[in-house]
Amino acid sequence: MQAYFDCFSGISGDMSLGALIDLGVAPDWLKERLGTMIPLSEFDITVTGVERNGIRASRVSVQTREGNTSRNYIDIQAMIKNSPLPEAVKSTGLQIFERLAVAEAHIHNCPVDRVHFHEVGGIDAIVDIVGTALCLDYLGISKVIASRIPLGKGFVECSHGKLPVPAPATLAILEGVPVYGTDIPFELVTPTGAAIVATLAKGFEAVPDMTITGIGYGAGMRDNEERPNLLRIITGRESKTTADSSGVAQQDCISVLETCIDDMSPEISGYLAERLFADGALDVCWMPVYMKKNRPGTMLQVLCRNDTRDALIERIFSETTTLGIRYHDMNRCVLEREPFEVNTRYGVVAVKRVKDPAGHIRLVPEYESCRKIALKRNIPLRVVYETISADADRKFPGERPLLDGSQLRQSIIT
Question: Which fold has domain 250-334?
Fold first, then answer.
């Protein structure tokens, strides 16, 4: 299950919690789980239904009995680590607080382990962050995508006095996250909200392809006249639509990065390809082109998933002489495949088990496995492929191993 955080009016910790509760998390269940980490006598959670511009939403309020208490990062780490909460929940909560701590340490020029939280150190912030992690686990959400993040303007009162909006901590947390400015004269994104979305989101883009299963709205404190002060979270299953009637080919959307280079040593090309694959590229191609003034050059084309695009762009800029990179989204169809292992005379070998549009199965030997065998035994790579295919054909006669030369490519499109 994946979730899309539609932050059209910003994000805060209570808005996140409200939207997830609106999706079906029982407040009593949430309070009970949080009570294993924080004494129930120290806090309470109230959920009320409100309207923002005619849209019904859940408004979460956390009442505490500790006053305006602040905590050190080490104290909060210990609270989470020593709790009996599920490991996945603890890991998510710790990652969010780590993002907060790193930002605060940078702003105040102190070691991370000596960061002292003020606004985000109280029980209400801990409830928002750990509660969000609990809700994601409850709803079975394993992947989060978010929209670009809007920012307000003006000033806000903090423990350090009056600060510009966005607050310094918020901006530090959002480093590397796509944002855009608005004329709304107050804080749209709190440090807690920024840490939640910056930590959880695997990408910041338009709504991904999915079959919608739920929609939740979490309300903020203000009633904004310019836009409803809401966070919308959409949950759904990743789309596996078919390209033909066989029900085999699956569609998805990837990013295509391109740049043309005419002033770089070709020795760098192989190294760059290795780094791009390590960074998550699906495929890397080099194509000869003629550029301005009839200079021969090379076009670099990289296929990648949207959540790795920014890292790959950064890699290309840092490793090549290019001054600009084009990118766009592209739909593609891929055959159903799964990793598989077969026993051969060389031992266990990794293969891909691929189903074609006619429903036939073929076993495609993995290049790296074959390469290791060829080097270790000092035999031709072609012989390794043919032997593995023959062994697989005897063990799985109903399936057709790939026997032609196309499997000799290092990168079968993934």
Answer: Alpha-Beta Plaits (3.30.70)
- Residue-wise pLDDT for 243-276, tens only, equals 444 445 677 788 999 999 999 988 899 899 999 9
Domain 336-408 has CATH 3.10.20: yes
Q: Do domains 250-334 and 336-408 have the same CATH topology?
A: no
3-state secondary structure the chain: CEEEEECECEECHHHHHHHHHHCCCCHHHHHHHHCCCCCHHHEEEEEEEEEECCEEEEEEEEEECCCCCCEEHHHHHHHHHCCCCCHHHHHHHHHHHHHHHHHHHHHHCCCHHHCEECCCCCHHHHHHHHHHHHHHHHHCCCEEEECCEEECCCEEEECCEEEECCCHHHHHHCCCCCEEECCCCCCCECHHHHHHHHHHEEEECCCCCEEEEEEEEEECCCCCCCCCCEEEEEEEEECCCECCCCCCCEEEEEEEEEEEECCCCCHHHHHHHHHHHHCCCCEEEEEEEECHHHCEEEEEEEEECHHHHHHHHHHHHHHCCCCCCEEEEEEEEECEEEEEEEEECCEEEEEEEEECCCCCEEEEECHHHHHHHHHHHCCCHHHHHHHHHHHHHHHCCCCCCCCCHHHHCCCCCC
Residue 356 has a pLDDT of 77
Higher pLDDT, 35 or 163: 35
Q: β-strands 143-146, 201-204: how paired?
A: parallel
- Spell out the long-range contacts of 87-95 with Cβ–Cβ below 8 A and sequence spacing 24 or more: 88/133, 88/137, 89/130, 89/133, 89/134, 89/137, 90/133, 92/132, 92/133, 92/136, 92/137, 92/199, 92/200, 93/129, 93/130, 93/133, 95/199
Which amino acid type is present at position 349?
Answer: V
CA 323 vs CA 130, 178, 261, 276, 320: distances in Å: 43, 21, 9, 18, 9
Q: What is the pTM of this model?
A: 0.60
Every domain of the chain and the residues it spans: 2-238, 250-334, 336-408
* Most confidently modeled range among 75-79, 291-295, 318-322, 394-398: 318-322
User: Exposure string (b/e) for 110-119, b if CB count within 10 Å is 16 or more?
Assistant: eeeeebebbb
pLDDT digits (tens, 9 = 90+) for 26-67: 999 999 999 999 888 888 999 999 999 889 999 999 888 765
Contact between residue 22 and residue 57 where contact means Cβ atoms under 8 Å apart: yes
